[in-house]
Design a protein that fits this description.
Blueprint lengths: L6 H10 L1 E6 L5 H14 L6 E4 L5 H17 L4 E6 L5 H14 L3 E5 L20 H11 L3 E6 L10 H14 L3 E4 L5 H13 L5 E3 L1 E2 L5 H11 L5 H7 L6 H21 L4 E5 L4 H10 L20
The protein binds flavin-adenine dinucleotide.
């Protein structure tokens, strides 16, 4: 008798899957309402953590601190704060870390960061950290945070090759990182090959695939041009002619992302990090495809907005 497709078994297997959701800090009260709506819709899926990205400029940085603290205080979710080396001295970063620790934040996503758009290559602050690995060392010296780092299965745009990427990941692990999250990708083989190569190179960190549920192909092209992720021609063909048809685009995106996640799950992947872009629907649908269903009460949206304008 086949029992592996029963709902009960699906839920049992789903409980072992770890999921996490990434959000960006909103810049307007309307966007803040969308963020809280997304958190409200995704919280019942029981994510292991939710992370909030960190911008290259002052105002968005303050927003990260405010939103992470609000999530910590107003919900039962476990928030992680992204932090970069860009434009800050080691002393300033230590101040930020102490602030997070005092607010009860225990998880940092440590990144080198990219410079603000139009400012060319990354130039370290004269008294700052030069790389994510150095930042991880600084965080470890400051407090006992859980530390996630980024990794790039298709190669970081500035990297001379795979070996440099793997050496860099190893440096981050040795500095004290506890998890790596990948840049997004669309071909499961890209991730599986990189995971195997990392293990062969002596990396023992868990490498969580970063999943971008695509809804808007034009937006995907813009983001990918900046971060170096490859958009395969077959994906471009699937979205051809859908620029003004977002509803069909969403259905196509759901199918593509669900197939990607299911392929990874079949290969034993048991943790997924979703780049939600603050939009909950597609991520919820994909989680359902993976057998992850709502199992805990939702958060209540905060009565008072955090954004001061
Ligand atoms: C999951 C995830 C979340 C992200 N969140 C944010 C965010 O919130 N805010 C943001 O601004 N950006 C974010 N980014 C983007 C990230 O900041 C950029 O990709 C950035 O260009 C590299 O960051 P990194 O942490 O991988 O850098 P690093 O690990 O420092 O690597 C950067 C480059 O330098 C090279 N390198 C590092 N150390 C050495 C060394 N000792 N010798 C030689 N080469 C070296 C590496 O090989 C690589 O090519 C995120 C990326 C991912 C995947």
């Amino acid at each position: 008798m086949r029992q592996d497709s029963s709902a009960g078994d699906g839920i049992r297997r789903a409980r072992r899957l770890q999921i996490s959701f990434e959000f960006f800090p909103p810049g307007t009260p309307k966007l803040e309402r969308s963020l809280w709506h997304a958190l409200e819709r995704l919280a019942p899926l029981g994510p292991d953590f939710v992370s909030v990205t960190y911008g290259a400029l002052g105002a968005t940085r303050t927003r990260t601190h405010e939103i992470v603290s609000a999530i910590r205080h107003r919900t039962a979710l476990n928030p992680a704060a992204h932090l970069t080396c860009v434009g800050a001295s080691r002393t300033e970063i230590e101040g930020i870390l102490r602030g997070y620790w005092d607010t009860g934040i225990r998880h940092i996503v440590a990144l080198r960061g990219d410079p603000p758009e139009g400012q060319g290559a990354f130039v370290p602050h004269p008294e700052g950290y030069r790389s994510a690995a150095e930042l991880v060392t600084g965080i470890r010296a400051c407090a006992d945070f859980e530390i996630s780092v980024a990794t790039h299965p298709e190669g970081h745009p500035e990297s001379p090759g795979l070996k440099a990427d793997l050496d860099n990941l190893k440096r981050k692990e040795e500095a004290g990182a506890t998890r790596a999250i990948t840049q997004y990708f669309f071909d499961p083989a890209v991730y599986l090959r990189f995971r195997d190569q990392a293990h062969q190179a002596g990396v023992h960190l868990s490498i969580t695939p970063g999943i971008l549920p695509v809804t808007d192909f034009a937006q995907l092209n813009r983001i990918s041009a900046r971060c170096g992720a490859r958009v395969p021609p077959w994906l471009a063909r699937l979205f051809e002619g859908l620029d003004n048809d977002p509803e069909t685009g969403k259905l196509v995106g759901a199918q593509v992302t669900a197939e990607l996640c299911q392929s990874l799950k079949r290969e034993g992947v048991d943790a997924f990090h979703f780049y939600t872009l603050n939009r909950p629907e597609l991520t919820r649908a994909i989680c359902r495809f993976l057998g992850v269903v709502e199992s805990i009460p939702s958060i209540r949206q905060p009565a008072a907005p955090t954004l001061r304008v």
